[in-house]
Amino acid sequence: MSTKLLSALPYSVLDLATVVQGKTPADTFKDSLRLAQHTESLNYKRYWFAEHHNMISVASSATSILIGYIANGTSTIRVGSGGIMLPNHSPLVVAEQFGTLASLFPDRIDLGLGRAPGTDQVTAMAIRGDRFNAAHNFPQDVLKLQAYFSEENMNSQVRAVPGEGLDIPIWILGSSTDSARLAAAMGLPYAFASHFAPAQFLTAINLYREHFKPSDHLKEPYVMACVNVVAAESDAEAERLATSLKQFFMGVVTGKRKLLPPPVDHMDEIWSLQEEEAVSQMLAVSFIGGPETIKADMQHFLNQTDIDEVMVTSHIFDQQAKLDSYRIFAETLKNS
Are 174 and 204 in contact (CB under 8 A)? Predict the structure, then answer.
């Protein structure tokens, strides 16, 4: 049971650069900047993008470029990746890209790393080519990345310029116990994808805490949970807005992806019982409601998990409703 106060819990943003029906990726990026500036004013701690490929509704494929765009348009919020799918890239190139970002925006860049491809297998083959099985080298590649950032690497034949000697926080991201073991062994902060893969969440974070080994980077375990949030002035309005989120995940479940659709009055007319069950399992860690519901559900979640930070992702069709959702969530936590 956690003794942490909800009002003291740091809160952050995960932006998938979701493309809504009737808009383009260009529109989406402008909306992302507006959201970043809005959440910065509400004291959100971080603004992260996730690397995805070959998804018409997710425009965050060139993750490091978007990080630079958002960091340039804000001034205090930390900006980073949640995450870079490291097996898709050489560690040297990632070190150079994030070394460049950290040189442009000192003390504001985070580097979250995942091992999944962030796409389907055919696209993963197109990205990785001969390195298709690079996920097996994920722990070694994280160590290579740390070496490129270290001052000790200055005598190596291969150096990251810029990057070398810079203090860029590295996070391990995951949705299973494998990532928890790695984050614990390396003494790194751990971010869990409970917004779409909640099944092993409690097992993974308990394992991480149990096996955590302090490092130069982190003395005690640090857990961030990514969750879905749709907040509105009333429970009924939040539930209506959340039908866009449910349709989005129905596309994931059925493989019939489409741009984020507008909300509907009744999901029963859209999905089957099997689809509803599958989506409900994926969305088990979601907070949908008015301020009092959000407050009660978040307090229960904090008591249950003892997390150190929460990261919010919100698939909401209307941009103003999305801005309002992030405001209501922040105000609810601060006033708890």
Answer: yes
Tell me how far apart the 2 most distant CA atoms of the chain are, in Å. Answer: 65
What is the Cβ-side half-sphere exposure of residue 116, based on CA atoms within 13 angstroms?
Answer: 17
SS (H, E, C) 44-113: CCEEEECCCCCCCCECCCCHHHHHHHHHHCCCCCEEEEEEEEHHHCCHHHHHHHHHHHHHHCCCCEEEEE
pLDDT digits (tens, 9 = 90+) for 273-284: 999 999 999 999
Q: What is the pLDDT of residues 283-330, one digit of tens each?
A: 999 999 999 999 999 999 999 999 999 999 999 999 999 999 999 999
Residues 167 and 172: their CA atoms lie apart, in Å, by 16
Query: What CA–CA distance (Å, rounded) separates 317 from 327?
Result: 16
CB contact at 8 A, 92 and 160: yes
pTM confidence score: 0.95
- Name the 3-class secondary structure at 189: coil
C-alpha 12/C-alpha 138 separation (Å) is: 26
pLDDT tens for 130-160 read 776 767 789 999 999 999 999 999 999 999 9
- What backbone phi and psi angles, to 5 degrees, belong to 252? -65, -45
Q: What is the DSSP code (8-state) at residue 290? A: S
- Of the candidates 231, 332, 288, the residue with the CA atom closest to the CA atom of residue 9: 332
Radius of gyration of the chain (CA): 19
